[in-house]
Amino acid sequence: MRQLLIVDDERHAVRGIKAGVEWETLGISVVHEAYNIRTAKEIMSDSKIDVLICDIEMPQGNGFELLDWVKIHYPQTEAMFLTCHADFSYAQKAIQLGSCDYMLKPVRYPELASTVKRALDKLTKADLDREKLQFADMYEHYYRLWESYQPMFMERFWQELLSRSIPSTKEGVREALAKHNIAYEELPHYKPVLISVQRWHKELTLREEKIMEYALRNSFEEMILAKSGLGRIIQVRSGALLALLPIRQEEDGEQLHEQIDSYIEACNRYFFCDLCCYMGSAVPVEEICDMYEQLAELESHNVTRTNERLSLTNCSVSPDVAPLPVMSGWGEMLKLGCGKEMLEEIEKYLDSVKHTGQADARWLRSFYEDFLQMVHQVLHAKGLRAHQVFSAMVLMKREDAVTRSITDLSEWVGVLIYEVSGNLNVMDETQTVVDKVKHYIAKHMSEDLSREDIASHVCLHPDYLARLFKKDTGLTISEYVLQERVALAKQMLAKTELAITSIAYELGYGNYSHFSKMFKKATSVGPQEYRKLQQSGQAKGS
């Protein structure tokens, strides 16, 4: 949220401005007041002021002097003048000093709000530009480091040990090390730390992601890894690093925890990612693989906690999970078009589960499957099929990506509800659908019309279309088709000399007898008799 400072020696003017605009709707959480330049400088020194509204003529210095000072000490602050001096030289000087606007008293509050909003938009754009520049500079730095990095023997050794290419026994480890003249006894016990990226805040290409993972690795080496040359950090898979910290008896465990916490905070702030660090117990080299597998299991069950340091000693791998919700109520809300309210209720529920920690990976997968089943049931009831509703993004989203955490699941639910709700809302425009059906029937009157063909034309399930059509017209689709064919037959019999057999074929009937039977059923007379009655009536009329 932003902060704003109003500087004017007239107290009633300051209070009027403060009360006349709904600042919170503009994103301003705090509005400061100052009645002279000295107080204004004190406030700006204590608080991050984003927008400054200033009078010009005041005791103890004027607004130009204040803006000149602001541009030197707080150049990112957007400043504007609000004064009763309609003097061109004043306005010119304000522009020269970098003021974003020059307004005259009394100002209309909507105009003031609009001016402040433009200043805030300018600040937002500047923030985004700075963030992009910061990311580009940081990316370039680690790209150069990454290019020059060459893997060493010890990393290959650890990779082979973790993949169990080297037996996880003292003898197997000793033999592998001896090939490179390293004595087993030289290696200390190690404390494994699994660093797992939960999500990137920016969309990254595969190449960019690899560079950023190297940035995480390099920072861990600089901030934490022992300088003895025996510690290592290894890429175990995409988005996951395993740090192996050489542990000595005299080392302070509390200090290591503080270092890990600082590392997590730095990664979150500077590398635009969320991650967790899973800490194992100090073990000899041959037990590293077993310890890593325990950490990987702990990681797979963590679906609620983010940007935290977790340990095998204080985290339960199988927490008491919450019971899965009954989703039928959500399904009814979706059918009724209450997608927004439904999403709010689901997000509130998932938030409560997240805060209580009553979820694991299996619970997330079960929720995902039940939710998807509920959505399919709603679509079936509405006569829609999933491929007609879900975008490529939803269809391609893999289950393991969706169920990685409650946050990922919540985002996926939001996208799914948005797409389903949008399609259901379009469907509920029943008159449009029925009109399309009527138009299709009129255009294909000479064909053998089936309910399935008509439903396929409007992308609806035949049963649902039948209910929809009957509700709107009072007729079944077959009754409507017969009604339209009979009406057209009457016109053709009365106004043309076409043979009745030709008329039957023109209206989609394969033979005369079937046409005659259906016509008589609808009009109580056969087609030939109807033509005679019409012709005799016309003759009498003439």
Automatic annotation (TrEMBL):
Q: Give GO terms: molecular function aspect only.
A: DNA-binding transcription factor activity; sequence-specific DNA binding
Q: Which UniProt keywords apply?
A: DNA-binding, Phosphoprotein, Transcription, Transcription regulation
Answer whether the UniProt record assigns the keyword Nucleotidyltransferase to this protein: no
Matching entries from Gene3D superfamilies are given as: 3.40.50.2300, Homeodomain-like
- The UniProt record lists the keyword DNA-binding: yes
Q: Which residues form the HTH araC/xylS-type domain?
A: 435-533
> What PROSITE patterns has UniProt attached to this entry?
HTH_ARAC_FAMILY_2, RESPONSE_REGULATORY
Q: Name all Response regulatory domain ranges.
A: 3-120
Q: Which Pfam families match?
A: HTH_18, Response_reg
What stretch or stretches form a coiled coil here?
none
Name listed for the protein in its UniProt record: Two-component system, response regulator YesN
